[in-house]
Amino acid sequence: MHAWGAGMFSRAMRALAAATGLMVLLALQPEPARLIEAASMHGSSHARALILSDQARRYLALQYRSFPTEFMGCMIGEVRGNAVLVSRIAPADVDPAQSTATAVLPKQTCEDAGWKETVGMIHSHPTGERCWYFFPGTQVPSSDAESFGRQPYPVDAIMCGDRVVWISRDMVQQQVRLSVRGADGRPAASPHKRGNRIHAGAASPDGQD
């Protein structure tokens, strides 16, 4: 091989090596969009407050009074820092046959039903009982906690009469009273540790209904 040909061969080999190195480097990188989305939903920044608009509160109160069976809604809103702001509740796509006094099952996701900017699901417990994500006095998750684990949203909620019991990705259960607001205009919330001790319904801050 003459000098010109050897030079071309050498440059080609260097280019091939560089391209191979770049491909290896890219192969080691995570899928950006998927990981960014997962980080935003399941990252270390957990929701500490659930703020319901007046429209969302009215909708929940009306639905709760209207149906003896469980209803399910899509909470539409946005995440601001460690707070989830719910501007409205949209009805989930539920077959009436799949809604009983103790269970409800949607036919499709909120997004597939046309509800964008969903930040969580909410369903009701018509009797106001068993409003917990962990069985009382334990760290054993309820079916509601297990369902939340399969969802992509930052929060999940249970409508229980005059209050909403909710949970975020840190699995700390809290509650929001629908008719009581603090001095700053935000709904009053009561945190409970993982493995809460709520016995019947959503307990008040002092543990008494």
Could you explain the architecture of this structure?
There is one protein chain. This protein is α+β, with helices and mostly antiparallel strands and 209 residues long. It folds into two domains: 3-41; 46-189, Cytidine Deaminase, domain 2. Helices cover 27% and strands 30% of the residues. It has helices at 3-28, 32-42, 54-66, 143-149, and strands at residues 49-52, 72-80, 83-91, 94-99, 104-106, 118-124, 155-160, 163-168, 173-181, 187-189. The strands form two sheets. An eight-stranded mixed sheet has the order 1-3-2-6-7-8-9-10. Strands 4-5 form a two-stranded antiparallel sheet. It is globular, with a radius of gyration of 24 Å. It starts with a helix and ends in a 20-residue tail after the last strand. The model is unreliable at 2-6, 16-44, 180-185 and 187-209 (pLDDT under 50).
How would you state the average pLDDT, rounded?
74
Relative strand content: 25-35%
Low-confidence runs of at least 5 consecutive residues: 2-6, 16-44, 180-185, 187-209
**Fourth-level CATH superfamily of the largest domain:** Cytidine Deaminase, domain 2
Helicity range of the residues?
Answer: 25-40%
Number of domains: 2
Shape: globular
Over the alpha carbons, how many angstroms does the gyration radius reach?
24 Å
**Could you give a short account of the major beta sheet?**
8 strands, mixed
List how many beta strands DSSP finds.
10
Order of strands in the sheet with most strands: 1-3-2-6-7-8-9-10
Q: Specify the number of helices.
A: 4
